[in-house]
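FORM 12-B: Structure-to-Sequence Request
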């Protein structure tokens, strides 16, 4: 046998066209296109982040501090190494338009800038003007630029005035694009920009107020960023310094893009697995139509290996065509939709086709095609020359043999290795692939069980001929039920899982959280304001609960004299600065689980109470000593107790609490949560904001809405990817219905000969399709609920509640999809004349 001869035979046979391979090509094309499109978009965003790192960051490097400005030593360090330095002050505040009871208030993220800002990039304003001109004083009132959302919310037009704290500002322009906006991360309010020196006298940046300072550095060409980072961290290691540079100008956004892109690629792999079912079914159907050709080749002396090679070449060529079409479609879609995608991103992105995402998609497609096509191809070796003279039936062996079995196992293993290594999230990739494999096994078992149940129930459906015929067909020797349940069931399973997860997340945010969360979260309450703040709320019957606590920020630098990061690793408590409070007595509701609180009048060496769960994760014990740097001062405290802290209630919770004497003299502010009737919220905000304009109020409902918006965007992206999977399943479903059309023509002819009417035949076909679709939907609901439970409990660490509406829609949708597909291919069988059909089969 020579490969050249096999290729020649394959080429001559393929001259007759690609009939029967439409489903094969569509399944492969859709799966590859989905993965290629997601990869292309992710690659374009990553390139934009990398190439525009300095613009996104606002400079070549950035040194940030919390609740303080840079010291003289830190500022001197920056000025000696940078050509230019820009200072940015970032904090939350209330913007107020109007006065008295008619005043409008809205939370805003304020950015105070100096004359050097922006070092890189350009702000786009409406009307168009330089930022310095927009922020300049006019008639003694400093200018400000506002996000259009904030301006519209407050009803402000260009030239109108509003207040931040005690200071009045003038709206000079609307902010259309902020070059460094992608580095801001999640914010509670729209942006406003003012001059830093214009904030003097506003009462917003008092000692202990919550604010961050960012110092952007424009460095000389060729600067060694690694060396500068090491030098800065060594010099100011324990001062709360945070370093970023242009190599990762927007790390939060980059991590999100990487994780979301990887997840969507994995969902695309699930779609490719659905397509694999169609590939296997299409190859099986095609080869069954070539049995006579194979038998003729056998009669002419061809070996089994030659026949296998002939059809392997054919399937390989067709797979190449399907993969190529998928790559073209996957590359074209992001380019065509580029303007729409770029408009929804905070950075300018150019959609260009690159080689790596296309190569990855092509590799996935080739491995999937080989995995699902080789099994049915192995049956070509079992065809005998006697098939020329009689139908040998479906009794050929199903197992492809141990050699090909090893090849299939190797391909499956390679697919797992490729997915785990290329996705960037190996654990998620393994779970996803394991879930897809488990779903295929469960669906195959469900199809087998459906056939057995239908076979038994068919014998009992006397007096209902349409139902009995439908059940008999489902329980018959043909593999129609398996193809329908596998293809449609896997697509619906992905959609069901997405629906359950989305419904549970929305339920947790929209229903559970408001029942326990406060109405407002107040920050920047100065120590001399806390008594008046409490007095206003204590006399209000609509207020059900008030919690207040002093708050400082500190960096955990050492544990038992060792570097905290060496002891705790990358635990979130030792990453950057953390909230810190003090109390003479345990706050109400505190549950101490080990040790004891210090005496109320304790004035000895500093003592600390630590959150139990975080202490266990770090490995802390009673008596351990923790050093915290607070505004440049190291405080070493011994752990004397552990307490339960629930951060999920929406109330006040601190990992670390110390005795008051340990933090005496440290500048700080207070934070508070207020639980009140919704009808009283507006009055509470108006009264407190009027008396204490420096206080910032964060409405919990607004935070919930922002989180819900983010979840909705993620859910939409995931639903689109799941929709591609479902579309592939529908293609496979249509292919299965088309492949069974010839058998249904013969079946209808026999039934008509025995006296069945067209209506009876049609009802039996419709019932058969609907029952198989409903079965696929029920299995999908069960598997989707299981996947949703696993994600909510083990990944989200929340509770799971079965959502019946989406489950019902999945079952009904599955039944309708199969019914429509079955009826589309029932027209020819119903129109066939029995005599012509039976004579042709004679």
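FORM 12-B RESPONSE
SEQUENCE OUT:
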């Amino acid at each position: 046998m020579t490969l050249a001869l096999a290729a020649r035979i394959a080429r001559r046979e393929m001259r007759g066209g690609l009939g029967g391979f439409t489903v094969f090509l569509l399944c492969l094309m859709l799966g590859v296109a989905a993965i290629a499109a997601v990869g292309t978009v992710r690659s374009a965003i990553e390139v934009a982040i990398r190439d525009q790192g300095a613009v996104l960051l606002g400079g070549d490097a950035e040194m940030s501090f919390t609740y303080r400005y840079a010291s003289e030593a830190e500022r001197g360090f920056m000025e000696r190494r940078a050509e230019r330095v820009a200072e940015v002050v970032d904090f939350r505040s209330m913007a107020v338009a109007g006065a008295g009871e008619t005043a409008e208030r809205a939370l805003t993220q304020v950015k105070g800038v100096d004359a050097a800002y922006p070092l890189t990039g350009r702000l786009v304003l409406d009307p168009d003007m330089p930022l310095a001109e927009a922020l300049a004083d006019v008639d003694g009132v400093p200018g400000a630029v506002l996000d259009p959302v904030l301006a519209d919310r407050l009803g402000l037009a260009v030239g109108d005035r509003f207040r931040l704290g005690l200071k009045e500002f003038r709206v000079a322009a609307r902010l259309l694009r902020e070059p460094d906006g992608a580095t801001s991360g999640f914010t509670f309010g729209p942006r406003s920009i003012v001059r830093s020196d214009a904030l003097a006298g506003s009462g917003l940046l008092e000692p202990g107020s919550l604010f961050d300072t960012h110092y952007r550095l424009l460095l000389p060409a060729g600067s060694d960023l690694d060396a500068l980072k090491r030098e800065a961290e060594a010099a100011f290691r324990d001062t709360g310094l945070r370093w970023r540079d242009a190599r990762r100008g927007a790390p939060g956004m980059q991590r999100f893009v990487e994780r979301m892109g990887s997840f969507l690629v994995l969902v695309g792999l699930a779609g490719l697995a659905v397509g694999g079912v169609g590939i296997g079914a299409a190859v099986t159907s095609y080869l069954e139509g070539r049995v006579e050709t194979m038998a003729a080749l056998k009669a002419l002396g061809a070996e089994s290996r030659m026949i296998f090679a002939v059809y392997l070449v054919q399937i390989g060529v067709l797979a190449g065509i399907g993969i190529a079409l998928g790559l073209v479609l996957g590359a074209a879609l992001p380019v065509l939709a580029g303007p729409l995608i770029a408009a929804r991103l905070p950075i300018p992105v150019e959609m260009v086709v690159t080689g790596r995402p296309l190569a990855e998609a092509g590799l996935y497609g080739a491995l999937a095609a080989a995995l699902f096509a080789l099994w049915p191809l192995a049956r070509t070796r079992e065809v005998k020359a006697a098939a020329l003279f009689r139908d040998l039936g479906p009794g050929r062996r199903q197992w492809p043999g141990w050699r090909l079995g090893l090849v299939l196992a190797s391909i499956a293993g390679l697919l797992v290795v490729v997915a785990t290594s290329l996705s960037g999230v190996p654990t998620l990739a393994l779970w996803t692939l394991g879930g897809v494999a488990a779903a295929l096994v469960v669906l195959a078992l469900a199809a087998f069980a459906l056939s057995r149940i239908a076979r038994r129930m068919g014998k009992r459906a006397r007096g209902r001929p349409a139902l009995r015929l439908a059940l008999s067909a489902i329980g018959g020797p043909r593999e129609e039920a398996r193809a329908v349940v596998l293809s449609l069931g896997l697509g619906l399973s992905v959609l069901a899982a997405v629906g359950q997860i989305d419904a549970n997340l929305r339920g947790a945010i929209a229903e559970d959280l408001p029942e326990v969360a406060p109405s407002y979260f107040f920050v920047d309450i100065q120590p001399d304001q806390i008594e008046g703040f409490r007095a206003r709320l204590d006399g209000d019957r609509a207020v059900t609960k008030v919690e207040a606590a002093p708050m400082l920020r500190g960096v955990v630098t050492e544990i038992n004299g060792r570097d905290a990061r060496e002891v705790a690793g990358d635990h979130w408590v030792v990453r950057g600065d953390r909230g810190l409070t003090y109390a003479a007595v345990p706050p109400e509701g505190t549950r101490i689980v080990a040790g004891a609180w210090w005496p109320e009048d304790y004035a000895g060496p500093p003592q600390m109470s630590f959150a139990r769960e975080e202490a266990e994760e770090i490995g802390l014990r009673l008596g351990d000593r923790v050093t915290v740097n607070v505004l440049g001062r190291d405080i070493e405290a011994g752990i004397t107790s552990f307490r339960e802290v629930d951060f999920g209630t929406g109330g006040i919770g601190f990992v670390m609490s110390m005795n008051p004497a340990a933090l005496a003299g440290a500048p700080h502010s207070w934070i508070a949560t207020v639980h009140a009737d919704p009808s009283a919220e507006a009055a509470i905000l108006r009264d407190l904001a009027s008396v204490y304009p420096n206080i910032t109020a964060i409405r919990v409902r607004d935070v919930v809405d922002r989180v819900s918006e983010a979840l909705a965007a993620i859910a939409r992206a995931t639903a689109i990817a799941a929709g591609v999977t479902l579309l592939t399943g529908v293609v496979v479903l249509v292919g299965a219905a088309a492949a069974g059309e010839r058998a249904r023509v013969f079946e209808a002819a026999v039934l008509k000969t025995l006296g069945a009417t067209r209506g009876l035949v049609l009802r039996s076909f419709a019932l058969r399709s609907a029952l198989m679709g409903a079965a696929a939907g029920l299995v999908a609901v069960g598997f989707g609920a299981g996947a949703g439970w696993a994600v909510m409990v083990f990944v989200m660490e929340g509770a799971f509640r079965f959502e019946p509406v989406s489950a019902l829609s999945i079952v009904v949708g599955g039944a309708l999809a199969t019914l429509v597909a079955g009826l589309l291919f029932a027209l020819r069988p119903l129109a066939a004349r029995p005599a012509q059909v039976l004579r042709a089969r004679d």
